[in-house]
Amino acid sequence: MAVDWYTTGALVVLAAWLLWKYLSWNYGYWQRLGVPCIEPSVPFGNFKDLFLGNKSPLESFEEIHRRFDGEPFCGVYRLRQAALFVRDAELLRQMMISDFASFHDNNNYVNEDQDPIFARNPFFVKGTRWKKSRSRLTPSFTASRMKPMFVLMKEVCDTLVRVLEQEGPEAMPDGLEAWRLCMRYTTDVVSSCALGVTGRTLEDKDSVLADMCRRLLAPTFMTNLKIAVAFTSPTLADVLRIRIMPLDVHNFVYKWVTETVAQREQGNVQRKDYLQLLVELKARGYLDTEGQGPVEKSTFTDMDVVAQVVTFMLDGTHTTATAMSFALYELALHPDIQHRLRENLREAVDKHGGQLGYDSINECTYLDMVLSEVLRLHPPIGHLEKKCTAAYPMTTASGRAFTVQPGTAVVFSIAGIHRDPRYFRNPDVFDPERFSPDNKDPTSMVAYMPFGLGARTCLGQRFALSQVKMGVACLVLNFRVCTTPRTPMPLEVDPNSFAKAAKGGMWLGFQPLVHL
Ligand code: HEM
């Protein structure tokens, strides 16, 4: 049969044109509403560098925040999806706190069949299911339930010091990669506080547990790509059967947690840890709210227990290891601040019988100031994405009214707001004094949101701060943290990182202090 080249050519051109039309048909959306936006390009919209793996999500969103200087919000396109990008801290508070009913869902998606564990993480749960899950878990994170965990954290801190006394000097002149070190610490703290088991990842950095925790949300180009596709187009994610958690990691954690639960149930073992609360929740269907409100009974399965342990393992290790390693980095770069912190910590510890723990940590205001500034300059979660759940009227800067339609993604850059000179003077400078109780500027405090804002604010904030403060305090009290020839200066963000990470690693030296 003779090939009709004209017809074939015409069909190819038509198919290409239809594809181009399909990918770009939404690109006039913001212009039509009079919302300022950047010209998008097929097929990536305004996120070409993110999809090609040249920039991390944190940097991509921060860059857009900077580009729209003077605008309270703008429109962006990710692939074909039109999203409203909010740049104004007051407006964000209005939308996410006062008008929460219009934005109660996060703009994310995981397929429940492919990722049953992630699908139960409160971060991914939507609507009334989220409300139920949040109220079921909130009692596990009260201050009174956190206090006994300081004793467990201190045990891990002692191991950290012991291990570092051996590894630190051996690793010179390059020093140690601080994120991995902090990840070993946070993994051991979380294993101890959440599961009541000794993680031993500090003693054995190549342990299976350390590997599994790192891979729960492996910072790779493929992970970022899968997340970007799933968040932008759930239908495409379903068709491609996208799974975010690797299958071997899923199988490992499921077996590990259910076996531990069975041991507790059979042996009637009682411990004061998070898993015990979940076992109680599974048995009774509710947790004691310590007088905080009425209790509602619900079914809590083995998969629910596994999912909540993984939520703790994932959210409790990666973000906190990031915060802790950036704190050590800034302290290495600012020896004067490190010295002052050490003096303040010594005073607080002396005041409490030489014990590093709940009381001395809460006593040390300067530690709180340093950490607050670290979380401002280096928020581990650089941007957030919400979904409009009820039509929301707005007005452009030029006075034109429009409505944010249900289903529209509403995004904002925490990193961008935290470095916006409207809210923080000399925003790129590391200066803990901003958070001194006498200096706190109310305008800055409105814009400070490392743990998010509103009813969906981070559930583990108390635990996170306790864990990072204990880790930083024990290191500063026992070592001089310093830069080495391999320390990244200036620091470049790893384009594959989801939570902020330094490209090439965060190399730092730890010189043991002589205690007289
Ligand atoms: C420095 C460490 C951490 C940072 C910076 C951080 C930050 C955040 C942020 C920005 C959000 C989104 C809040 C929003 O949507 O407004 C969030 C949510 C969440 N975080 Fe954290 N987090 C940290 C540690 C932890 C820890 C240790 C846990 C658990 C033990 C945890 C559990 C959660 C959960 C369950 C949510 C979802 C809450 C919901 O949607 O209801 N986080 N976190």
UniProtKB/TrEMBL annotation:
Which GO terms fall under molecular function for this chain's record? Answer: heme binding; iron ion binding; monooxygenase activity; oxidoreductase activity, acting on paired donors, with incorporation or reduction of molecular oxygen
Could you give one GO CC term from the UniProt record? endoplasmic reticulum membrane
List the Gene3D superfamilies: Cytochrome P450
Under InterPro entries, the record lists: Cyt_P450, Cyt_P450_CS, Cyt_P450_E_grp-I, Cyt_P450_sf, Insect_CytP450_Detox
The record's keywords, sorted A to Z, are:
Endoplasmic reticulum, Heme, Iron, Membrane, Metal-binding, Microsome, Monooxygenase, Oxidoreductase
In which residues is heme bound? C458
What topology does the record note for this protein and the membrane?
Answer: Peripheral membrane protein
- What are the required cofactors? heme
Family stated for the protein in its record:
Belongs to the cytochrome P450 family.
| Name of this chain's protein | Cytochrome P450
Question: Which source organism does the UniProt entry give?
Answer: Locusta migratoria manilensis (Oriental migratory locust)
